[in-house]
Amino acid sequence: MALTAQEIARRSADAMWARDDASKWLGASLDAVGPGTATMSMTVEKHHTNGHDICHGGFIFTLADSAFAFACNSYNQIVVAQHNVITFVAPGRLGDRLEATAREVARFGRSGLYDVRVTDQSGRLIAEFRGASRAIEGRHFDEDAA
Predict the structure, then answer these.
(1) CA angle, corner 68, sides to 31 and 88, nearest 5?
(2) How do residues 83-110 score in pLDDT, each as one tens digit?
(3) Of 31, 96, 113, 132, which is the most exposed, with the fewest CB atoms less than 10 Å away?
């Protein structure tokens, strides 16, 4: 029996999450995943703040990058980042719950483009991220054994 696209996305995410020590260390949670999409969130804690007493941009980038990774790896193909860029719009503050929602813009050949929108608990835009992906050799799990 063939797996649905949603089942493939979930199993790919489960395989990745089992090894994703960086996202776990960040305090992120994987809230949703689907074909070409993923949503992750984290609460800004004291150790995430910088010298301006706001969330360090590197942590916001990491949250967005992780959501991007789960979205582009949702087809049971190993995919890595080729390059990405982020634009910070507003600061994340201590106690904010940041949510990164990734969506596929396009897949072509071995490449893909994904946009990630980072917002706070009120829906205020914190950052916009665009990631370019590249599929490499390998699978997250054996679909024939599923």
Answers:
(1) 100
(2) 999 999 999 999 999 999 999 999 999 9
(3) 31
* Positive or negative: CA dihedral 95, 96, 97, 101: negative
In the chain, where are the structural domains located? Answer: 5-145
Dist. CA 101–CA 68, nearest whole Å = 8
Q: Does 3.40.109.10 match the CATH number of domain 5-145?
A: no
Residue 12: CB atoms within 10 Å: 23
CB 98 within 8 A of CB 91: no
- Sign (positive or negative) of CA dihedral 83, 87, 91, 92: negative
| Helix residue ranges, H only, 48-130 | 57-72
- For 47-80, what is each residue's pLDDT tens digit? 999 999 999 999 999 999 999 999 999 999 999 9
